[in-house]
Design a protein that fits this description.
The structure is a homodimer.
Chain A (H helix, E strand, L loop, with lengths): L27 E2 L4 E5 L5 H12 L12 E8 L6 E8 L8 E8 L10 H13 L2 H4 L1 E10 L2 E3 L3 H5 L3 H10 L14 H4 L6 H14 L3 E3 L3 E9 L3 E2 L5 E5 L4 E3 L6 H19 L7
Antiparallel strand pairs in A: 1-2, 2-4, 3-4, 5-6, 5-9, 6-7, 8-12, 9-10, 9-11
Helix pairs in contact in A: 7-8
EC number (chains A, B): 2.7.1.140, 2.7.1.151
Keywords (chains A, B): ATP-binding, Kinase, Nucleotide-binding, Transferase
InterPro entries (chains A, B): IPK, IPK_sf
Chain lengths: 281, 281
């Protein structure tokens, strides 16, 4: 007997990107492990489908990406009728209280083939945010706790200084995300053989080799389960790349823009783990 | 008895930067191991002195830089009278037939504090050259041989495409630099425990750690002695960083722009060594 179709809804834990809330066109989840992302027009959707098709066939790198389940024609979240969606792994489906940070990598977020106007806008935003100075910027962050939550809005996040980024990466692994960061979960989440740093290290080694793709404006999404009493819950720490609408061919050249930014992020997270960041705050 | 003062002259083997030839203000050498670089006005000269003073006191990194011997007041090469000069190691003094390539690292060559006009000019040049696409560009190259020489002029080098850069890095280690590159010296110059790749690997490890400086518009200079019959001559392969007029404080952040470009250069040189570059040419 076929199981009844699960109703689609806007994801509860989305921290960045287009939102399906308030009748906008945005992603949907089925609550059973799939995340549906509406395909964008202007060729970007097709590019993302081609990218997922290719990358999910590469064993060397498939662990860095949400698993791909083809495309589906689904009712759009804005009520405009059937719309093609990417069917992807819902990265937070198995978490009951996920702490999430979305970090856009690269000091440059535009791609060389873009229009002059698009490049200028991205260039200015990269300068205004920490992209240019740090090689990455936080695009979204969410931590919920028995005692409260921390989910700064987009405007606040866009104004993050390098110092704010350091503090956010501490708060992300602290007992009470709203007050003095104590780094109580730093060793469990950032350290260890399955922790964030180990996974970013694997990603770095792949980026030192791969010359197939340049990942413009792509984010690293970090998720972990936060149990009561601010401990790391069951289920491993997840580190995945997301948002591939601006991936272009690498043409035999490594993605030096992504790799440089990734190395900078690795250093920032190492600094939180070792407490070295206190010298910089 | 004091040795007679050695006459100063324009360096014979300079491949990039300001030239002392034709009555311009440019660097001088004494033929006995010192290279004198006229201090630039507008604060850049002072910055370079401070940088050399600090960096030559750091044991972790001093091998990456020309040794520093203070400043000297010397007659300027343009005949304008006494002018302060940096006294540096003459990197080619011990070579009789040096092959030299000057590679400016970074997809971005401007520094954030620069004027809008300066940033725009650098941005456009980075796009026109291979800086933006490869994360580095060749600024000068010279190979002399019994049978001839290859020293393309600045205009030709500025027009180098990514493919031209691959070919230049092959020709740099080939028997006859003017014709089909055979990579005859690749293993000796690029490979081995004292070769270019080993030295760039050390440099990379330093850049993954150091957060003191951001090396804007800095070059990696590679020099080796070319004996008759296109073999590697006595004296080790040299790999040094040069030109620090636009170095700025790192403020606790790694130099992701330099590191990304350096990783791309390492990949290009590895490709020449393994012959993988033939797939890309």
């Amino acid at each position: 007997m076929a199981s009844p179709p699960t109703p689609l809804r806007a994801p509860e834990h989305q921290v960045a990107g287009h939102q399906a809330a308030e009748g906008q066109l945005g992603p949907l989840v089925d609550g059973a492990g799939l995340f549906f992302k509406p395909l964008q027009g202007d060729g970007r959707g097709d590019d993302e489908v081609s990218f997922y098709t290719l990358v999910s066939s590469l064993p060397s790198s498939s662990s860095f990406f949400p698993s791909f389940h083809g495309t589906r024609l689904l009712p759009a979240s804005d009520g405009s009728g059937p719309h093609p969606h990417l069917a992807l792994e819902d990265l937070v489906a198995e978490f009951s209280n996920p702490a999430i940070v979305d970090i856009k990598i690269g000091s440059r977020t535009w791609y060389p083939q873009a229009s002059e106007d698009y490049i200028r806008k991205c260039f200015e935003k990269d300068q205004r945010t920490t992209s240019a100075s740090l090689g990455f910027r936080i695009s979204g962050i969410q931590i919920r706790d028995g005692s409260g939550a921390w989910k700064p809005d987009r405007g606040e996040i866009r104004r993050f200084s390098p110092r704010d980024v350091r503090i956010a990466l501490r708060r992300f692994v602290s007992s009470d995300p709203r007050s003095d960061p104590d780094r109580a979960l730093a060793a469990a989440v950032y350290g260890g053989a399955d922790g964030v740093l180990a996974k970013l290290g694997e990603l770095k080694r792949w980026f030192e080799e791969q010359t197939l793709f340049h990942f413009n404006s792509v984010s690293v999404l970090v998720v972990y389960e936060r149990d009561e009493g601010a401990t790391l819950g069951k289920g491993k720490v997840k580190v995945k790349l997301v948002d591939f609408a601006h991936v272009v061919e690498g043409k035999g050249v490594i993605d030096h823009n992504f790799l440089g930014g990734l190395c900078s992020l690795i250093r920032f997270i190492s600094d939180v783990l070792t407490g070295l960041d206190e010298n910089c705050i």
